[in-house]
C-alpha cells in the first residue's frame, strides 16, 4: 500500500523559511518513472503545483516560485523535503505531497498539512 | 508556463450526464489528467492520459480530447460525485517539467 504523509510547522512568521517533509512508503523513489511532487492549495482556491523530484534526482520548479523553492530527497529514509524561503501571508495554504508515476499522473496524495503565515 | 481554463461551476440532476471542460492552447500536444476533490479531502486521480481510468474509479467517469479542449464526462451522476474537479496537464514527452492545474470546477448535484 502506497502512503505519503506531510509534516512541518503549522505556523510560520513572515520572512521565515518553511521546511516541509514528505515521508512515504510502499514505493521506492529510485524506481524509474517514480517522482514525488508538492502541490499547495490556499483556502477556497485552486491547486497550485510547486516542485517535483524524480527517480534520477532531477528537480523541477514552478516558474513563478522557483527562486524560493528547493526540493531534495533522502532515498534511504523515504523522504522528500521542500523548503520555501521568505514566507508571506499569501503562502498560507494546505501543502500536499503526491506521488507522480510518469505513466499515470499524480496517483497517490498525502492528506495535506495546513500552513499559516502570520506574525 | 501556460493556463488551463475550466468553468467555475456545473450543475446536473442525479442520473444525468455532467460534462466538465478544460481548455488550453498546449493541450493538443500534452496529456490531460483529472482529479476529484471533496471538501476537506486530498485530490483523487480519476482520469489520466486524457481518457484512461485508474483502477477503482467507476466506469461512469470518462475522458476525451479534441483540439485545445479536454472533457471529463460523468454519466449517470450520483450524489457522491458532488465535488471540485481539476484538470492538469504535463509535457507530452512523458516528463513533468512544467505542471499546470486548471482553476477547478465545482460540480453540484441538484
Overview features:
heterodimer, A: 119 residues, mainly beta, 7-stranded mixed β-sheet, 4-stranded antiparallel β-sheet, 11 strands, 0% helix, B: 110 residues, 6-stranded mixed β-sheet, 3-stranded antiparallel β-sheet
Brief account:
With 119 residues, chain A is mainly beta.
Structure description:
The complex is a heterodimer of chains A (119) and B (110). Chain A has 119 residues and is an all-beta fold. Chain A is built from no helices and eleven strands. In chain A, strands 2, 4, 5, 6, 9, 10 and 11 form a seven-stranded mixed beta sheet that branches. In chain A, strands 1-3-8-7 form a four-stranded antiparallel beta sheet, with no helix packed on it. In chain A, a hairpin with a 3-residue loop joins strand 9 (93-101) and strand 10 (105-109). The model of chain A has no long low-confidence stretch (mean pLDDT 97). With 110 residues, chain B is an all-beta fold. Helix content of chain B is 0%, strand content 42%. Chain B has strands spanning 9-12, 18-23, 32-37, 44-47, 61-66, 69-74, 83-89, 100-101, 105-109. In chain B, the strands form two sheets. In chain B, strands 1, 3, 4, 7, 8 and 9 form a six-stranded mixed beta sheet that branches. A three-stranded antiparallel beta sheet of chain B has the order 2-6-5, with no helix packed on it. In chain B, strand 3 (32-37) and strand 4 form a beta hairpin. Chain B is globular. The mean pLDDT of chain B is 94. The interface between A and B is medium-sized, with 25 and 26 residues.
Amino acid at each position: 500500500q502506497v502512503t505519503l504523509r506531510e509534516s512541518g510547522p503549522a505556523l510560520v512568521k513572515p520572512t521565515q523559511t518553511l521546511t516541509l517533509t514528505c515521508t512515504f512508503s510502499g514505493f521506492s523513489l529510485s524506481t524509474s518513472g517514480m517522482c514525488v511532487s508538492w502541490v499547495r492549495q490556499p483556502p477556497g482556491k485552486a491547486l497550485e503545483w510547486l516542485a517535483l523530484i524524480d527517480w534520477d534526482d532531477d528537480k523541477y520548479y514552478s516558474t513563478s516560485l522557483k527562486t524560493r523553492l528547493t526540493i531534495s530527497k533522502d532515498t534511504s529514509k523515504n523522504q522528500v523535503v521542500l523548503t520555501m524561503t521568505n514566507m508571506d501571508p499569501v503562502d498560507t495554504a494546505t501543502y500536499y505531497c503526491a506521488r507522480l508515476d510518469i505513466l499515470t499522473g499524480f496517483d497517490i496524495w498525502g492528506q495535506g498539512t495546513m500552513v499559516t503565515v502570520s506574525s | 508556463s501556460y493556463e488551463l481554463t475550466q468553468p467555475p461551476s456545473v450543475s446536473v440532476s442525479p442520473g444525468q450526464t455532467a460534462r466538465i471542460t478544460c481548455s488550453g492552447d498546449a493541450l493538443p500536444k500534452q496529456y490531460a489528467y483529472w482529479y476529484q476533490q471533496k471538501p476537506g479531502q486530498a485530490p483523487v486521480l480519476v482520469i489520466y492520459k486524457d481518457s484512461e481510468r485508474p483502477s477503482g474509479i467507476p466506469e461512469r467517469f470518462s475522458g476525451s480530447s479534441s483540439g485545445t479542449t479536454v472533457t471529463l464526462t460523468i454519466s449517470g451522476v450520483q450524489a457522491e460525485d458532488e465535488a471540485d474537479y481539476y484538470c492538469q496537464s504535463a509535457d507530452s514527452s512523458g516528463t513533468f517539467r512544467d505542471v499546470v492545474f486548471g482553476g477547478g470546477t465545482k460540480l453540484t448535484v441538484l
